[in-house]
Amino acid sequence: KGLEALRYRKITKNPCRLSQEQKDELRKLLALGAEHFGYPGAIWTLSRVRDLILRKFGISYCISNVAVILKKIGWTCQKPVVRATQRDEEASKKWLQEKWPEIKKSR
Questions:
Q1: Are 76 and 70 in contact (CB under 8 A)?
Q2: pTM to 2 decimal places
Q3: What is the pLDDT of residues 32-82, one digit of tens each?
Q4: Is 69:26 a contact under the CB 8 Å cutoff?
């Protein structure tokens, strides 16, 4: 039975449950920006897009499927650069030049 479980099985993909019209509408909705739908900041995350699809079309997807849908409609997933608004660039550069080498040496 051990090798039987390893037998090759073709993986079938589930068809996208969004119609082409819904995909076109999703593209237009995304172009409005995340803030238009009450999200703080203008960035669309996969979870935000998933929530939008659920709210507007009543269809639930897992995060990985949302990434596939975005690719199909010509959008790409991007990782936002997260920085604190209070960040002091000069202090960060100074720390990297002075303190980080000391810490790195001690390892």
A1: yes
A2: 0.61
A3: 999 999 988 888 989 999 999 999 999 999 988 999 999 999 988 766 566
A4: yes
Structure tokens at 38: 């009450």
CB contact burial 41-63 (16+ within 10 A = b; e otherwise):
eeebbbebbbebbeeebeeebee
Within a domain: 63: yes
Q: How far is CA 75 from the centre of its chain?
A: 11
Report d(CA 51, CA 3) in Å as an integer.
41
Range of the domain at 25: 16-79
Residue 30, Cβ neighbours under 10 Å: how many? Answer: 18
Closest CA relative to residue 61, chosen from 49, 71, 74 = 49
Kindly state whether residue 73 falls inside one of the protein's structural domains.
yes
Q: Per the structure, how many domains does the chain have?
A: 1
52 domain-assigned: yes
